[in-house]
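User: I'm writing a tutorial on reading structure tokens. Could you give me a worked example: one chain, its sequence, then its tokens, then a sentence or two explaining what the tokens reveal?
Assistant: Sure. Here is the example chain.
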Amino acid sequence: MNNTGFFNYMSVNSSNSLFRNGKVLTRRDINGSDAGSIGIELEKHKMDVINARNLLSSGKISLNNQGFDVLQSKLLEQDFDFFNNNEVIEKYYAECANIIKERTGSRNVYAFDHNIRSASGKKSKRMINDGQQVQGPAHIVHGDYTLTSAPERFRQLAKPSGKNDTLRKILGEGHSLIPKKILDNTLSNGRFAIINLWRNIVKEPVEINPLALCDASTVSLKDLVVFEIHYADRIGENYFAKYNNKHRWYYFDKLTRDEALLIKQWDSEGNMAKTNGKFSDNELLDNPCTFSFHSAFEDPTTREDAPDRCSMEVRCIVIY
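And here are its predicted structure tokens:
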């Protein structure tokens, strides 16, 4: 069934990201954990949230156009330890890459980063074994990359791993994830995307802090606010969003461990990406879309004794 939920948007007084009239940022320590932020002013809005499970067979929801999709994806190893960083990188990354490659028909997929999110894990400051601190569900409307940061992240992955790169220990000193020839060929005459594979990593279906996805075709340029992420050795960028009553929100009710949710974070073939944000159409994304906003949301119908959500997103570079 459909639902309503509460979403945190940036204040309507926030600077327009494309012109960078202000500074909104957060800092991450050497382990990639939160280390403070400035300039974040939020407004809470109640929105309708459509259960996308009812639309999967209708063709009205797709990774290409709306920016998200879900599929049945039983884990190859049922006893997999998601809190063991090395095990995730050495085993689960390849599984995620293969799932996305098969779903998109792309030539190459490279998994390069991941997070675990849990409200109780964040509160207790739980650490991933040989990794960073568990993060809380992100209760703010956002996209993970921008016109600047998406191609820049692609370039960084063709260079030797930096201090904050998840793959630094696995690749070894001086080695990169992506061959420079593939980078150059793709940037000059190809298509790349960044797609997250999001999964519930506990046995109980997701009830509390469910994840919602915004139909990309309902977002306008004026909604965007650049949000900088200051790491130890680089600065990344996300998009936050200002409230727009045209935004159409979806979620997949009670996601299980045996489902993979794909979220498009960037697509170089998207209308916004190809025109560098300069076009007359008021809508951001046509066919295909450039990215999908997403956010955890407060569901007022959640039962009081609902189990904590514990999820992992694995970020992947996709080469078409």
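What the tokens reveal: The chain has one domain: 3-319. The longest strand covers residues 108-118.
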